[in-house]
From TrEMBL:
Residues 228-606 form the Myotubularin phosphatase domain. Belongs to the protein-tyrosine phosphatase family. Non-receptor class myotubularin subfamily. Signal peptide: none annotated. GO terms for molecular function: phosphatidylinositol-3,5-bisphosphate 3-phosphatase activity; phosphatidylinositol-3-phosphate phosphatase activity. It comes from the Eukaryota. GO terms for biological process: phosphatidylinositol dephosphorylation. GO terms for cellular component: cytoplasm; membrane. SUPFAM superfamilies: (Phosphotyrosine protein) phosphatases II (SSF52799), PH domain-like (SSF50729). This is Myotubularin phosphatase domain-containing protein. The lineage of its organism: Eukaryota, Metazoa, Ecdysozoa, Nematoda, Chromadorea. Substrate binds at residues 380-381, 442-448. The active site is at residue 442.
Length: 739
C-alpha cells in the first residue's frame, strides 16, 4: 500500500503528477480510498508487516520474534485510519507511504514494515505490527534539517546469498545520511514506482535554501510564555560584568554593521580610545590591519582586577612583515587600562606553521614588544571535519568492541578537544592568577576564537554555568560575534561535500560536557540541556542558529519572524536542571592547581543511535588512555620510585623528586590495593569485572576517575596492601608514610 496526499495539496514546484502513476497489474482488492482529517488520500498497492535478514550471507531468513515473515511474501497493511496528533503548530503533512525500514542490529539486520510520514519539518516512521502482539512498535523521527545527504538505492543485491540460495534482497529505496551520526534506509516496492515521489519530497523540504523556500522556523507557530530573544542584551551583559569598572566603554561605530559586517552592532573598546582626537577614525585605522576588520574588542572583564578577555582576527602582516602603528597603540591601550597588567598575552589558536603560512596570504601574527605570543595548535575546520567523519563511522551503525579504542584514537577527536581545553585553561589562569589581560584570535576570529573565549568565561564566571547564563554566552560569543552557523552546519543546503562545513560548535559543546563531567556540581544545567542544544542546532525549528552573523539575522528579521530556542528551553526549564548543582561551587581550585581535563568519549551522545554501545564504562575511553607522553611516564615512574622508598622505610622518602612535585594530575582512585613491589611491566585490571585484559602501557594505567590496580605481572603479593584514600591525588600523598 502507498498512501499519497491528493495532488492539490502538494505544494512544491517539481511536484510529481500522481495521476500519472502506473497502477496496472494491481488487483482491485489492492486499491482503496482512505479518508482522514487531512483530506482524501489515494491508497495503492500492498505492503508488509516485518521481515528479517540473517547475519550470515547466504543463509535463509530466520524467524524474528514478531513472526516468520519473508521479504518477498508481502502481506497487506490495513489503511491508516487514526488521526495524526503529533504535528507541531505550523507543521504540515505532505507525503505518506508504506515502507520497509532497514534496522541494523548487533548480530542481524531487521526489516521493519510500517508507515512513513514526510512533513515540512521531519520524516516519521511508525512500525506496524499485528494486533495480537504485545510488543511496542518502533517509532522515530528524523528532523529534515538534520539531513545531510539523500540518495536513491539502486536495484541490486546487498546480501546476495550463496550460489545455492534463492534469497534475492533488492534494496530499492532511499538512503539518508544525517549530520548527527545516523544513517537511515527505507526500502520500497519497485513495481509501484513511488521512490521518485519520496526522493523529491525529501529533497525539497530538507534543503529549503537550495530550493528557495523558507526555513521551517518561519512556519513554526508554537507560543511560549517567555520570549527568548529578550534574554540577551549586549549592554546589559556588559554592565553586569563591569559593575563600577570604567576601563572599557561601548562604541556605536558598528551600529549599522558598516564598520565590520560580521561583528555585533555594539562593541566595547578600551576607554583610552575616547581620549584620541577622533575615536572613530582611530578605530577605522586599526581595522585596516585586522582580517575582516575584526579589531580586538572586549569579551569579558574581571571588574575587581580589570583583567580583560579580548577577541579579534589575525593581523594583516603579510609576507613583507607590514606594521601598523595604530594597531600597536591600540594593544598598548588594552594593557594600560589594566593597572595589574605587565604585558598582553596573545593566544593564537592556530598551529604556528599554519600562522606562518597565512603570511603568504596576507595574514600573520603579532610581534610586539608589549605582548607575549603563544600558539595553541588547534587544528582548522578541515581537519576537524575529517575527524568527526571518522568518529561517525566508528559509532554507527554498530560499535566494533575489539577495535573501538584503537579506532577512537585514530579519529584524534579527543586530542582535538584536549588542545581547546588546554588553551582555555591557560587563558583562565592568566586572568585569574596573574591578572593579565588576554587577547585570543585565530584567522578570522569566528571559530577557534569563540571556542577559547567561551570556555574561558565558563571557568571564570559562575553566571555562565547557569541555564540563563549559558544561553547568554552562546548568544554573545557565537551568534552575535559571527560564528558561521549557516556555513558550518550547512542549514538548508544540498551540498554535503561543502568544504565550509565543520563541527566547531559541536566541539565546543563537547568541551563543555568535559568540564561538566569533572565538575558536575558547578553547573546548574544537566546533560540533557547540552543534547537539546545540539539537536536544535540542526533542526531549523528555531531562529537562534540560522544564518552566519547578527547582520544577516537583522536584515532577514529573524527575531520578528521566528522563535528563539531559549523560549523552548526556559519553558521546560525543570527538565534541564542539574539536581547536584551547588551555587557556591567554583572552579577556582581547578584553575589554581593548573589541573588538566583529560577528555573522555561522550558515549551517551555519539552512541545514542547505535545498536550496541561500548560495554566498558565511558571512563575507559579517555584521552589519557591513549596518551603515551613523557609526562605521563614521568608521573608513573616517579610514583613507583616513591612507593618503593616508602615501603623500604628509607629516609629518602622525605626528599621526593622536585619534578614530580610540580606535576599536577587529576584526581583518581587506586583501589583496593597496590602491590608494594613493582616491575616495569603492568597489566590493566578493572576490579568491577575482575578479568585481566591485554597489557597496557604505564601511561594508560593512570586512568582518570577509574577504579584500577597496579598489578605486578611477574610476582603478585596479595597479603600486603597499601590503600589510597579515594578522594586523594598522588600529589596529596607526597609526604605520607601510611596510606
Amino acid at each position: 500500500m502507498i498512501t499519497m496526499q491528493h495532488k492539490n495539496r502538494f505544494s512544491y514546484n517539481q511536484a510529481v503528477n500522481y495521476s500519472s502513476i502506473e497502477i496496472s497489474g494491481l488487483t482491485e482488492n489492492s486499491k482503496d480510498i482512505v479518508d482522514n482529517h487531512n483530506g482524501q488520500y489515494i491508497v495503492i498497492g500492498k505492503d508488509v508487516h516485518k521481515s528479517s535478514l540473517s547475519e550470515k550471507r547466504g543463509s535463509e531468513l530466520h524467524e524474528s520474534s514478531r513472526g516468520p515473515y519473508t521479504f518477498r511474501d508481502l502481506e497487506s497493511l490495513p489503511p491508516r485510519r487514526h488521526a495524526i496528533t503529533w504535528l507541531l503548530p505550523g507543521e504540515e503533512l505532505h507525503l505518506e507511504l508504506n515502507v520497509i525500514y532497514h534496522k541494523q542490529q548487533d548480530k542481524r539486520e531487521e526489516l521493519c514494515m510500517g508507515y512513513l510520514y514526510v512533513t515540512d519539518y521531519r520524516l516519521r516512521f511508525e512500525e506496524r505490527i499485528p494486533e495480537w502482539m504485545s510488543s511496542e512498535p518502533l517509532i522515530f523521527d528524523v528532523v529534515l534539517g538534520c539531513i545531510s545527504k539523500i540518495e536513491k538505492i539502486g536495484y541490486y543485491n546487498v546480501r546476495g546469498g550463496s550460489k545455492n540460495s534463492n534469497l534475492k534482497i533488492q534494496p530499492y529505496g532511499i538512503s539518508i545520511n544525517c549530520k548527527d551520526v545516523r544513517k537511515v534506509r527505507f526500502f520500497l516496492k519497485r513495481e509501484l514506482r513511488n521512490r521518485r515521489a519520496l526522493f523529491d519530497c525529501l529533497k525539497f523540504y530538507s534543503f529549503p535554501n537550495t530550493n528557495r523556500q523558507p526555513f521551517f522556523a518561519k512556519k513554526y507557530k508554537e507560543k511560549f510564555q517567555f520570549d527568548g530573544w529578550l534574554l540577551f542584551d549586549a549592554n546589559s551583559e556588559f554592565i553586569r560584568q563591569k559593575k563600577s569598572n570604567d576601563s572599557w566603554r561601548p562604541t556605536l561605530i558598528n551600529k549599522d554593521y558598516d564598520f565590520a559586517g560580521t561583528y555585533p552592532s555594539l562593541l566595547f573598546v578600551p576607554s583610552e580610545v575616547f581620549k584620541t582626537k577622533s575615536p572613530d577614525d582611530f578605530l577605522s585605522s586599526v581595522s585596516k590591519f585586522r582580517s575582516k576588520k575584526r579589531i580586538p574588542v572586549l569579551s569579558w572583564i574581571d571588574y575587581r582586577t580589570s583583567a580583560a578577555l579580548v577577541r579579534s582576527s589575525q593581523p594583516l602582516v603579510g609576507a613583507l612583515s607590514r606594521k601598523s602603528a595604530s594597531d600597536e597603540d591600540y594593544l598598548d591601550m588594552i594593557v594600560s587600562v589594566n593597572p595589574n597588567s605587565k604585558y598582553l598575552l596573545i593566544l593564537d589558536a592556530r598551529p604556528s606553521i599554519n600562522a606562518k603560512a597565512n603570511r603568504a596570504n596576507g595574514g600573520g601574527y603579532e610581534n610586539y614588544s608589549n605582548c607575549q605570543l603563544k600558539f595553541m595548535d588547534i587544528q582548522n575546520i578541515h581537519v576537524v571535519r575529517e575527524s568527526l567523519k571518522k568518529l561517525k563511522d566508528a559509532c554507527f551503525p554498530r560499535i566494533r568492541q575489539k577495535r573501538f579504542q584503537q579506532t577512537l584514537e585514530e579519529t584524534k577527536w579527543l586530542a582535538h578537544l584536549q588542545t581547546i581545553l588546554d588553551a582555555a585553561a591557560l587563558a583562565a589562569r592568566e586572568i585569574y592568577l596573574h591578572k593579565n589581560s588576554v587577547l585570543v584570535h585565530c584567522s578570522d576570529g569566528w571559530d577557534r576564537t569563540a571556542q577559547i573565549t567561551s570556555l574561558t568565561m565558563l571557568q571564570l564566571d559562575p553566571y555562565y554555568r547557569t541555564i540563563e547564563g549559558f544561553s547568554v554566552l552562546i548568544e554573545k560569543e557565537w551568534c552575535s560575534f559571527g560564528h558561521k552557523f549557516a556555513h558550518r552546519i550547512g542549514h538548508g543546503q544540498d551540498k554535503p561535500e561543502d568544504k565550509e562545513r565543520s563541527p566547531i560548535f559541536v566541539q565546543f559543546i563537547d568541551c563543555v560536557w568535559q568540564l561538566y563531567n569533572q565538575f558536575t556540581s558547578a553547573f546548574e544545567f544537566n546533560v540533557r540541556f547540552l543534547k537539546t542544544i545540539l539537536d536544535e542546532l540542526y533542526s531549523c525549528r528555531f531562529g537562534t542558529f540560522l544564518y552566519n552573523c547578527e547582520r544577516e539575522r537583522s536584515e532577514l528579521q529573524v527575531k520578528e519572524n521566528t522563535t528563539s530556542v531559549w523560549s523552548f528551553i526556559l519553558e521546560n526549564r525543570e527538565s534541564y536542571v542539574n539536581d547536584k548543582y551547588d551555587s557556591e561551587a567554583t572552579l577556582g581550585d581547578f584553575i589554581r592547581q593548573k589541573a588538566k581535563v583529560y577528555p573522555r568519549f561522550w558515549t551517551d551522545y555519539y552512541c545514542r543511535y547505535s545498536q550496541l554501545v561500548p560495554k566498558e564504562d565511558e571512563d575507559r575511553y579517555s584521552l589519557f588512555d591513549h596518551d603515551g607522553s613523557a609526562d605521563a611516564m614521568t608521573i608513573l615512574n616517579g610514583e613507583i620510585t616513591r612507593f618503593k622508598v616508602i615501603d623500604s622505610g628509607s629516609s629518602e622518602s622525605e626528599g621526593l623528586n622536585e619534578q614530580n612535585e610540580s606535576i599536577e594530575i587529576p584526581k583518581f582512585r587506586l583501589s583496593p590495593a597496590i602491590s608494594p613491589t613493582f616491575s616495569q611491566q603492568f597489566s590493566y585490571m578493572p576490579h568491577e569485572r575482575g578479568v585481566q585484559s591485554s597489557r597496557w602501557s604505564p601511561a594508560r594505567i593512570l586512568q582518570q576517575h577509574g577504579t584500577y590496580s597496579f598489578v605486578d605481572v611477574k610476582e603478585r603479593l596479595p597479603n600486603k596492601y597499601y590503600n589510597l584514600p579515594s578522594s586523594s591525588t598522588l600529589s596529596d600523598c607526597k609526604n605520607e608514610t601510611k596510606f
